[in-house]
Amino acid sequence: MTPMLTDSRLIVGLDLPSLDAARAMVERLEGTVTAYKIGLTLLARPGGVAFAHELKAAGKMVFQDWKLHDIGAQVEGAAHAVAEGGCDLLTVHAEPQVMKGAVKGRDAAGTGTKLLAVTVMTSLSDADLTDIGYGYTASDLVERRVRQALECGVDGVVSSPLEAGRVREIAIEAGRPDFLIVTPGVRPEGADKGDQQRVATPRAAIEAGATHLVVARPVVGAENPLRAASAIIESIDGLTR
């Protein structure tokens, strides 16, 4: 029997209604998926953080998607707590005082947690940003926030696949070829966009410069999640940035 391909660049978002459903999904994907994102719905449930630690203890790469956003001191404390508890990737909003607080807290924890700054949510269009009150298009705001993230010393950003190429250019210009570019809004060929506005296929996202892909519904909502995950991994096999 041919062993199944695995690729840690694929992060499956466990966007499911309960911890039991999430555990069952991890079991179904065993042997193929090695990295998981846990969002607010699960983290906020009793035992949600313990579940994240459970996955980490089982050798999975764990992305706690808290999207921290508060005054600097609160973010510092929260980032310290999450990092100290054990977490590979942690998100904060890409505002300078938020990012600086997160870096300070993470550094004090002395762990290997990497901080990702959320630039512009992939559910937002240019029109949405105008409604919110930003005087920037999505691509312009992403560029501004990427430069701020580099200055603040975070490890990478979350941005849509459509901006990944420009983010990569800015990071290389800044002397940070190791900068992480984590892209949600990834949809396999023919998949429904859902509530995402700025999307691309897995292959296109990696070719543009993404270091990691976050895929939720196209895998966890598939009739055969293992087959769906395997198809994504096969589509990026051999691609390097």
Main features:
alpha/beta, 44% helix, 8-stranded parallel β-barrel
Strand and helix map with partners:
Layout: E1 10-13, H1 19-28, E2 35-38, H2 40-43, H3 48-57, E3 61-68, H4 72-85, E4 89-93, H5 96-109, E5 114-118, H6 126-132, H7 138-152, E6 156-158, H8 164-173, E7 180-183, H9 202-208, E8 212-215, H10 217-220, H11 225-236
Parallel strand pairs: 1-2, 1-8, 2-3, 3-4, 4-5, 5-6, 6-7, 7-8
Helix pairs in contact: 4-5, 7-8
What does this structure look like?
The chain has helices at residues 19-28, 40-43, 48-57, 72-85, 96-109, 126-132, 138-152, 164-173, 202-208, 217-220, 225-236, and strands at residues 10-13, 35-38, 61-68, 89-93, 114-118, 156-158, 180-183, 212-215. With 241 residues, the protein is an alpha/beta fold. The chain has an eight-stranded parallel beta barrel with strand order 1-2-3-4-5-6-7-8, surrounded by seven helices. Helix 1 links the parallel strand 1 and strand 2. Helix 4 packs parallel to helix 5 and helix 7 packs parallel to helix 8 (164-173). The mean pLDDT is 90.
